[in-house]
Write a structure and sequence with these properties.
The complex is a heterodimer of chains A (335) and B (808). Chain A is an alpha+beta fold. Helices cover 41% and strands 19% of the residues of chain A. Chain A folds into 2 domains: 2-87; 106-332, 2-Layer Sandwich (BirA Bifunctional Protein, domain 2), CATH 3.30.930.10. In chain A, helix 1 runs parallel beside helix 4, helix 2 packs antiparallel against helix 4 and helix 5 crosses helix 10. The relative contact order of chain A is 0.10. Chain B contains 20 helices and 41 strands. Residues 802-808 of chain B have low confidence and may be disordered. The chains are: A alpha+beta (335), B alpha+beta (808).
């Protein structure tokens, strides 16, 4: 019986070699492995064998059956592959039918990113006029006419009393004039200063922030802006707060992050300081609260402002700010 | 402001490295933006003594110097003439390089060997002097490394001052802050003045006629000075500070300015009429020539320093040409004064004349230190220019400054900062900043800032000083509890939705400048009274092309098309969301939010799966319909009721809904395209956001999904070309009695098979009822009715071909 089994195996393997059609394969499988196939019948005769021979022959029979089943599968697979090849001349590398894709301006994208972070922290987005009264742009921000701090911001004038806003800070006053505390807003928008070179354009974008409530502290300012920087530039971003001056905040602070280009080693982008200035901030000056009629003693607050172009440039590695407003389609499509 | 570290060290001990110092100043609010190592390779240069000077045998202008370099002799060819035998001079031997990178080599100059180069001060980067070879002091030895011998090594800190810290616009000012930060005492220059017996009052007088403009005016006088060049150390420091050396007396006034922050002015005493100084306002229309030889128009707001006859200086800004110190000056009168900051600032602005002096006066100098600076200058003059100092000074100071008293509450300071700094610690910080501090009780102290801290007038200012010395980075981080306020953000939501739709349709967003050329209105063909001409004009534009605020977004779109087309990019889909600014009666213009989109060139290019096709009006119309449809504004009407500036009168439409004008579409007119130098066709869409907003529903209502099948019937009808499809559709819907679900125009034919005045329209009508399955009969009846009504109203007829009523 052992011989019979081995002979059967050889015969089947031989026949399999010449199978070209799936139907032939199936016929062959039926006649050997099917319910009435040769191998099945052979196995039924196992009972006729003497008891002591049964286990050895049984093992051999199972082995043959497994080998043959496997071989049938492999021939079947190769037939499938052959079928696929014959049917299709599909060139999968042809480009697909694409519809044109549009892009939001990088400044819009970064503004959104900034605002979204603050909105999640509980700030509301507000907007206001770009052609602004001198009063809101300067005077109410503790910069009376003839104040040297006005030199910090060259200004486009429309008339003696009307300017193109030089920063988004007038929104602080406009909101506080119409709202009682608490106030928590971010105000994105266009601002204007007469300046034009590789790092200045006469129009650019800022995002202003203001939080006024009972018991708001410089520690809160640090916490809020640290959270912002970590979300904007990555959770490992180092930052530092250093004293500065703005007429409408006291104390005032500039916020620097560890240079994203050189990781603090010092490079051209960070003027070899290892730090990049990303925003100005401070505790709202009591004079400003007086001007909008808030009770200086019972509340406190912080304000901050940042340049969107600067942040977009840091994030993208762009080194000429003018490209933002040239609107070359190849530029826009990169973002 | 550039500050020499060596100069700083005269006033305060500095243990930190230059980099550490820069870091701690930055963190205290004096931002160091640059740090330059001065004279770092000057030790490669050698002190050499001139043993002999011979004329070059073959060049008249050159000489050959034989030099002792300590360990031998060398011979150098030199073009300068100022040195003589026995002088010590700086020498660069072959192999050394100069600060500008030039490498010195042994060379032959007209057959004579030159083993190095003798150097002028500018060649070593020390000053800008190039009048001759630098002559070194006689106490040096040949062969010494130059930098060590002269103690030249230095660091220059470039400090950016904030407008409030004018007290730091001097070496002493910065030294004071370093002292406070490092707990070191600062040492002021000592004043020793040897005076003559002549009383100054016998030589000069001072009268202040405008004490508001000039609260303090002091003068000192030195007779018999010898005007000449300043010594190297002074010229070096002035050079570092960015000040040109003039002569010893003028240099001293500038030196004291940089050292103490007090602007001084030196007059040629002998040119002062009546030997007197009068401080008063100028007269309107008066003209005065300043030191820079410019005639200046004065007005009665300008404060002047006058002598017995007329003006001799523009107070606090610049001296006059008529009393300038020259080589001939023998007696000098030095002015040290305090002028009203606002007055100086106004005059400086009005005259567009800003100087080191006006910069300081307009921010407020130390009124208490005026006399000290004067005495310091007198001492230096005697030291460097000789002469006799007249006895005493004149000090007109009608109302001496009184120390302000500010109450600081420790708990308020801690509340603002989020800290728990003890009152004792706070007092120590303020004391280290030379403030007088008197603790009143456990919480309060009375603080008097010194006269140079003009920025400190309130409790909040003291809180900042405490925070600065405590260190901003040491303040613990906390998060505020935010209670959101209610704001209407519907416009922002709408904006983001519209932008998303546009981006989805392949449009890229552009941002252009809000200011444009006033010519843009002409190019758009704006009428005389058009809103497009209601420009908000800039008084000080950067250029004519950016001199008015835009009244339309179309110029920005077209300029962008032009820029891209010049770069070969002709197929564009772009949009901008921004404001237009329309001048109104009120002070502020109307700022209106507008969306403008443009499509030009090909909408589809030739591909393996598609043909190329140029954009046309119905591309932009479809985009308008997409946007409005997505916003739930189904009932938008497109009408050609009034022309739209800049658009082709045949291919445009105004979009309205519920009676509001909400936008426009159209082809940009040929004239406008030519105005921008463009040849292709461009189609634009404008949507006005303010009127659109109330039409957009914030809540979308659910409509139950249809349960019963729909039936489609097609009609092909020939009508006069003037019949608009909208009319047919409205007839279909009108007769359809709510059973017409949609009407689709699936073909338009104009051509050979019909007469030229006519067109054939193929309409596909879907019928569906919400309540039941429609029977064929029902549909056929309505359909017939519809055809009849179309015939009646349009005079049209059915077209041969697809039989009407064919179910599809």
């Amino acid at each position: 019986m052992k011989d019979e089994l081995l002979e059967l195996k050889t015969r089947v393997l031989k026949k399999l070699e010449s199978v070209a059609e799936r139907s032939d394969l199936e016929k062959l499988r039926q006649s050997y492995l099917g319910r009435k196939g040769f191998l099945t019948l052979l196995l039924k005769r196992l009972e006729e064998l003497p008891k002591e021979q049964r286990p050895a022959i049984g093992r051999l029979a199972n082995q043959v059956k497994e080998e043959l089943t496997e071989e049938f599968q492999s021939v079947s697979d190769s037939l499938t592959r052959k079928d696929a090849k014959e049917v299709s001349a599909l060139d999968i590398t042809l480009p697909g039918r694409r519809t044109p894709t549009g892009h939001l301006h990088p400044i819009t994208q970064i503004t959104e990113e900034i605002c979204t972070i603050f909105v999640k922290l509980g700030f509301q987005v507000v907007q206001g006029p770009e052609v602004e009264l001198d009063y809101y742009n300067f005077e109410a921000l503790n910069m009376p006419k003839d104040h040297p701090a006005r030199d910090m911001q060259d200004t486009f004038y429309i008339s003696d009393n009307v300017v193109l806003r030089t920063h988004t800070s007038p929104m602080q006053i406009r909101i506080m004039e119409n709202t009682s505390p608490p106030v928590s807003i971010v105000a994105p928008g266009k601002v204007y200063r007469p300046d034009s070179d590789i790092s200045h354009t006469p129009m650019f974008h800022q995002v202003e922030g203001l939080l006024v409530d009972k018991g708001v502290s410089f520690g809160d300012l640090k916490g809020t802006l640290t959270t912002f920087a970590h979300q904007m530039f990555g959770p490992d971003t180092d930052l530092r707060f250093r004293p500065s001056f703005f007429p409408f905040t006291e104390p005032s602070a500039e916020v620097d992050i560890r240079c994203v280009v050189c990781q603090g080693k010092g490079c051209r982008v960070c003027s070899h300081t290892g730090w990049l200035e990303i925003l100005g901030s401070g505790m709202v000056d009591p004079e400003v609260f007086k001007i909008v009629g808030y009770d200086v003693e019972s509340i406190s607050g912080f304000a901050f402002g940042m340049g969107v172009e600067r942040i977009a440039m840091l994030k993208s590695g762009l080194d000429d700010i003018r490209l933002f407003f040239e609107n070359d389609i190849r530029f826009l499509q990169q973002f | 402001m550039k500050v020499s570290l060596n100069w700083l060290k005269e006033f305060v001990d500095i243990d930190q490295t230059p980099a550490e110092l820069a870091e701690s100043l930055t963190m205290a609010g004096l931002e160091v933006e640059g740090l330059e190592h001065k004279a770092q390779n000057l030790n490669d240069l050698t002190v050499a003594r001139i043993l002999d000077i011979k004329l070059h045998p073959r060049a008249d202008r050159l000489s050959i110097c034989q030099l002792d370099v300590g360990k031998g002799e060398v011979s150098v060819v030199c073009g300068a003439k100022n040195m003589s035998k026995g002088d010590l001079v700086p020498l660069a031997l072959p192999g050394t390089s100069l600060p500008d990178g030039m490498l010195i080599k042994e060379s032959k100059i007209r057959d004579e060997i030159s083993q190095g180069m003798l150097l002028a001060e500018d060649e070593m980067g020390l000053t800008d002097d190039h009048t001759g070879i630098m002559i070194l002091p006689d106490n040096l030895r040949p062969g010494q490394p130059l930098s060590d011998a002269m103690d030249l090594e230095d660091w220059i800190l470039d400090i950016t001052l904030t407008p409030n810290r004018i007290d730091c616009a001097s070496i002493v000012g910065i030294a004071r802050d370093i002292g406070a930060l490092t707990n070191k005492k600062i040492s002021m220059p000592e004043i020793h003045i040897e005076e003559s017996d002549t009383l100054i009052e016998d030589l000069a007088s001072v009268t202040i006629l405008d004490s508001q403009g000039c609260p303090r005016y002091t003068v000192g006088l030195v007779e018999g000075v010898k005007i000449g060049p300043s010594p190297f150390w002074m010229r070096y420091r002035l050079h570092v500070s960015g000040i040109r050396s003039i002569n010893n007396v003028v240099d001293i006034t500038n030196y004291v300015l940089m050292e103490l922050g007090q602007p001084l002015h030196a007059f040629d005493y002998n040119l002062l009429a009546d030997r007197q100084i009068v401080v008063k306002r100028a007269e309107n229309g008066q003209i005065f020539t300043t030191l820079d030889e410019q005639p200046r128009d004065l007005d009665d707001q300008t404060l002047m320093i006058c002598d017995g006859e007329g003006p001799v200086a523009l107070a606090g800004i610049m001296g006059g040409l008529n009393s300038e110190i020259t080589e001939k000056s023998g007696t000098v009168l030095i002015e040290s004064a305090y002028f009203n900051p606002t007055m100086i600032r106004r005059s400086s602005k009005r005259l567009s004349l800003s100087t080191e002096a006006s910069y300081r006066f307009e921010r407020g100098i130390d009124i208490g230190g005026v006399d000290f600076a004067l005495k310091r200058s007198l001492m230096l003059i005697k030291q460097l220019a000789g002469g006799n100092i007249a006895r005493g000074i004149i000090d007109c100071y009608p109302e001496p400054w009184s120390t302000p008293k500010i109450i600081l509450r420790a708990n308020r300071a801690n509340e603002i900062l989020g800290t728990s700094i003890g009152i004792k610690q706070m007092a120590d910080y303020l004391f280290s900043l030379t403030m007088a501090v008197k603790v009143v009780d456990q919480n309060r102290m009375e603080v008097s800032p010194p006269s140079f801290r003009v920025d400190i007038t309130r409790e909040a200012d003291l809180v900042e000083e405490i925070a600065r010395l405590f260190g901003y980075n040491n303040i613990p981080i906390t998060l505020p509890a935010i209670r959101p306020t209610e704001e209407d953000i519907s416009e922002l939501v709408l904006r983001d939705r519209i932008k998303a739709i546009l981006v989805g349709m392949g449009f890229s967003e552009i941002i252009t400048y809000s200011f444009i050329s006033p010519k843009s209105a002409d190019i758009l063909g704006a009428g005389v009274n058009s809103n497009l001409r209601s420009f908000v004009k800039l008084l000080n534009p950067l250029s004519k092309d950016q001199s008015v605020m835009r009244t339309s977004l179309i110029p920005g779109l077209l300029s962008t098309v032009r820029l891209n087309s010049l770069r070969g990019q002709n197929d564009l889909r772009i949009f901008e969301w921004g404001k237009t600014y329309i001048k109104e009666e009120e002070e502020l213009p109307q700022e209106k939010q507008v969306l403008a989109a443009l499509i030009t060139g090909m909408v589809s290019t030739q591909k393996w799966y598609q043909e190329a096709r140029d954009a046309d009006l119905f591309d932009i119309k479809g985009m308008a319909e997409n946007i409005l449809g997505e916003l739930g504004i189904d009932k938008a009407e497109y009408k050609r009721n009034s022309l739209k500036e800049g658009l082709d009168p045949n291919e445009y439409a105004r979009i309205s809904s519920s009676g509001s004008d909400i936008g426009a579409i159209g082809k940009v007119s040929k004239e406008v395209m030519e105005g921008y130098g463009l040849e292709k066709k461009a189609y634009v869409l404008e949507i006005y956001i303010e009127p659109l907003l109330p039409l957009v529903s914030r809540v979308k209502q659910f409509t139950p999904l249809a349960k019963f099948p729909s039936v489609r019937r097609d009609i092909s009808i020939i009508v006069n070309r003037s019949i608009e499809s909208a009319m047919l559709i409205s007839i279909v819907k009108g007769i359809g009695k709510g059973l017409v679900e949609s009407v689709d125009i699936f073909d338009i034919y104009q051509g050979k098979q019909i007469v030229p005045q006519e067109k054939a329209l193929a309409l596909g009508i879907s019928y569906r009822s919400k309540e039941r399955t429609l029977t064929d009969n029902e549909v056929n009846n309505i359909h017939e009715e519809i055809i009849e009504e179309i015939r009646r109203q349009t005079g049209g007829r059915l077209r041969e071909g697809p039989k009407n009523g064919n179910p599809r």
